[in-house]
Request: fold
Amino acid sequence: MSGGAYSYRYYRLDELADDIERDFVEDGKYKSKYSYDEDDDGLRDRIAGATEEQRPIILKEIKSLIQDLRDCSKRAKEIEWYMSGDTGADSYLKRLENLGLLGKETYTRDELRHLAVNYAISCEKGFQGSFDAWLEDISPDWRECISKIE
Reply:
């Protein structure tokens, strides 16, 4: 068995993702084994206190969390194998790249808004490429530029 440098704790992240996912298979609705009176149909809702506007936001966040936990588990496994000497630097980086987890950029909500607006403006001015092509072409220090504006 490979790994061991961190006692295989990456597996716990997958277990947590599985537990959360299982709780929300039916968007948090489930049938209880217990009924408290004869009028109780046993139907329960894990997010019953949420409004109709909040419910889709909460469910979207839960799905995002599950994916983040799975990604973290994969990354933790790869660093465990690397730190245990099972993979070398090249293999470690290649495995992360193959999983689509290497160099994955994240953006704040304000940064996304800024990028979307500027991409739309560029398209209005005649840019005809994809968003990825546009993003690759803009200044690499764009985060520094918008921080000066705000």
User: Anything to note?
Assistant: The first strand starts at residue 29 and ends at 31. The chain is about 55% helix and 5% strand. The mean pLDDT is 82. Strands lie at 29-31, 43-45.
